[in-house]
């Protein structure tokens, strides 16, 4: 059994894939070939935003988005500690400070009440929220609310967006895990002023290597992103108007993604069906295991199917039993970011974000992909 089955998918599109890769070999435009624009147009339309800018990875997408907004030293970017390190790493790379905010216990996404407390503490000081050291020492300007759609489930934008608006923060959506998810009819990636996604092979829409994309509605922002991804290029490639990156999407990856995208909507439905089967199996078993909460009006992209065990020992028992039965499982994320060594200088301590810490002790993820059979799921649940 596989945690993510990419081989079955490849069999379905092998012919199309070879045709598209062959076309790239024929035209030879390995950098910024025509497949990039074709993919950008298709994914912008799918996401429901006017502009999509392909880039080298999900991490690049986050960096480009924050750079386009001019985020830098002295700026606070509010985000969750219960995410992949890249979310806060992009903030730190630009010299800005991640201000962590706790999550909600059922969805594991940003808790709007904790965001409100963080904003109050940033404005007025006090002990209402465990702020990072730079905020306590010199003060920081709150600039961005960087939401994460954890495991594919969009964050609570209807409660987060008004808070951001009220405090003059820009919402950036880390949709690396949620491409294809729906939030009351809107697609993930379109919910903030900028959306960022990843095409890492294990993500819902994954390539055969690294890749990413930014989404936005404003043509001015799209132009800045396009410039930033190629060394801050101006009117042509020998004019440089800002400090940028080499953060292009490869033509070959765009060709792979075009082939995979032909299956994507069907695969989203298959993922949802697999998640619903897991939900039913666990509900019927009457075990003290709590899958990620469902939110009415939201459809997850199911990057992962994750469950909370009743306690740390319960998780170890589950993981041991799964291993014994030959079922691959994973723990996302065993250490919340505020307790990672890389962010030690922020001065956080255990207890600062109790919901994220509790989830880190109890969570585990089961195999999840569009080609998971009912039979396999029954044996996993058993
Ligand atoms: C995967 C991921 C990223 C980074 O994407 P890469 O393509 O691996 O750089 C960022 N944020 C989250 C939440 C992710 O899951």
Key features of this structure:
382 residues, 13 strands, binds pyridoxal-5'-phosphate
Q: Would you list the SSEs in sequence order as H and E?
A: HHEHEHEHHEHEEEEEHHEEEHHEH
Biggest sheet descriptor? 7 strands, mixed
Task: Round the Cα radius of gyration to an integer and report it.
Answer: 21 Å
* CA-based shape: globular
Topology (elements, then pairings):
Blueprint: H1 7-27, H2 34-47, E1 51-55, H3 58-68, E2 75-79, H4 86-93, E3 97-100, H5 112-124, H6 133-137, E4 141-148, H7 157-166, E5 170-174, E6 182-183, E7 186-187, E8 194-198, E9 212-216, H8 219-228, H9 251-285, E10 290-291, E11 298-299, E12 305-308, H10 312-324, H11 354-362, E13 363-366, H12 374-381
Parallel strand pairs: 2-3, 2-4, 4-5, 5-8
Antiparallel strand pairs: 1-9, 6-7, 6-11, 8-9, 10-12, 12-13
Helix pairs in contact: 1-9, 2-9, 3-4, 3-8, 9-12
The chain binds pyridoxal-5'-phosphate (PLP).
Pyridoxal-5'-phosphate binds at residues 57-59, 83-84, 86-87, 148, 174, 176-177, 198, 200, 210, 212.
């Amino acid at each position: 059994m596989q945690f993510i089955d990419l081989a079955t998918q490849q069999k379905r599109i092998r012919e199309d894939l070879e045709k598209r890769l062959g076309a790239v070999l024929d035209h030879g435009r390995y950098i910024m070939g025509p497949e990039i624009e074709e993919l950008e147009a298709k994914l912008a339309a799918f996401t429901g935003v006017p502009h999509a800018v392909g880039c080298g990875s999900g991490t690049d997408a986050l960096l480009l988005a924050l750079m386009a907004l001019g985020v830098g030293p002295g700026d606070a970017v509010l985000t969750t500690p219960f995410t992949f390190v890249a979310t806060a790493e992009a903030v730190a790379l630009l010299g800005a400070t991640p201000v962590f905010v706790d999550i909600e216990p059922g969805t594991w996404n940003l808790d709007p009440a904790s965001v409100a407390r963080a904003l109050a503490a940033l404005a007025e000081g006090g002990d209402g929220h465990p702020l990072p050291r730079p905020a306590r020492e010199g003060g920081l300007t709150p600039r961005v609310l960087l939401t994460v759609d954890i495991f594919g489930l969009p964050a609570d934008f209807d409660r987060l967006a008004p808070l951001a608006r009220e405090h003059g923060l820009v919402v950036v959506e880390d949709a690396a895990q949620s491409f294809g998810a729906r939030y009351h009819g809107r697609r993930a990636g379109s919910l903030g002023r900028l959306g960022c996604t990843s095409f890492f092979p294990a993500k819902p829409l994954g390539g055969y290597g690294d890749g990413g994309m930014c989404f936005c509605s404003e043509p001015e922002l799209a132009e800045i992103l396009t410039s930033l991804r190629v060394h801050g290029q101006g009117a042509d490639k020998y004019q440089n108007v800002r400090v940028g990156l080499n953060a292009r999407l490869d033509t070959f990856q765009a060709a792979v993604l075009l082939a995979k995208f032909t299956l994507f909507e069907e695969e989203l439905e298959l993922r949802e069906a697999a998640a619903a089967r897991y939900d039913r199996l666990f509900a019927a078993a009457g075990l003290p295991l709590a899958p990620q909460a469902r939110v009415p009006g939201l459809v997850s992209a199911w990057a992962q199917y994750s469950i909370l065990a009743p306690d740390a020992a319960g998780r170890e028992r589950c993981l041991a039993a799964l291993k014994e039965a030959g079922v691959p499982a994973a723990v996302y994320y065993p250490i919340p970011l505020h307790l990672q060594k890389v962010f030690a200088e922020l001065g956080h301590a255990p207890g600062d974000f109790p919901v994220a810490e509790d989830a880190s002790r109890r969570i585990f993820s089961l195999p999840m992909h569009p080609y998971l059979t009912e039979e396999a799921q029954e044996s996993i649940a058993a």
